[in-house]
Amino acid sequence: MNPPYLLFDVGGTDIKSALSDEAGNLLGIRRVPTRRGTPDPAASLIDQLHGLGSDLMAQSPLLVPQAVGLLVCGIVDEDAGLGVFSANLGWRDAPLREMASKAFALPVGFGHDVSTAGAAELRFGAGAALGTKVRNAVVLVIGTGIAAALFVDGHAVSAGGYAGELGHAAVPVGFDCPCGAHGCLETIGSAGAIAKRYTQASGRSVDGAREVLEAMETGDPVAARIWNEAVEAIAFSIAQLCSSIAPEAVIIGGGLAQAGEALLEPLRRSLRNKLSYHREPLIVPARLGQDAGLRGAYLKAAEAREVHP
Ligand SMILES: [Zn+2]
């Protein structure tokens, strides 16, 4: 049994919030747009979280939260409690953990959205489903962009918030990236890139990578080429990881993972072709879906309460 916690998962476009009960159920899950374009984005975020927290507590007056779990996007220094930088939301070196702790008068467990959601995926989701304790793993989130959570010998690798930026590591056939570098995996392997490149190559505008997959399944050679190039690029990046941190499992989440075996099967094949003596990781889909972040916030809240009894 755990006490109730207030949980927030702050992304560039929206905030998910929930209150957990003693059994760890997530109550009142809600998603609202993140307030943007204010002069003090950090203060504005905390104010918005306070409002969401008050709503949750009013809905379940018998549950008295004992800690807060707060995840944010961007570059995050978990140890220092800082939102170092968010391109989407605009803060720099914002002491978000301390600000939230003051606003709620509670201990706050603070973390990066992708890395903490990855930890939850490993503990409660795909990692748990593998049955054996996986100590070396990568959770690869492929959506509009690509981000990763890395776990080595049972520990999350943070490096002051700079680890796991797999989407901005170059691959052989990458393109110019908005980040300023050339060849980033994101420019060819993300769901966003698949849709954009298909539209450029075919002249047919599509809503997302799902439509490219559908076109490929009806025999469209342009769609097949672009899908395969994305798979090759992702496999290249995973192969690099196999020789650097040697994961036992690679868990694929994010929008593109909805393609299921249409993505995973060719990915396994392409990866196998690139490896020799390396340990070949299992490639499996994520299982927690949209709630992975809130589950991660739950882990952080529980840690915070242990640190500040
Ligand atoms: Zn880049």
UniProtKB/TrEMBL annotation:
Pfam families: ROK (PF00480). It is an enzyme of class 2 (transferase). Keywords: Transferase. InterPro entries: ATPase_NBD, ROK. The keyword Plastid does not apply. It comes from the Bacteria. Its EC number is 2.7.1.2. Belongs to the ROK (NagC/XylR) family. Gene3D superfamilies: 3.30.420.40. This is Glucokinase. GO terms for molecular function: glucokinase activity. Transmembrane segments: none annotated.
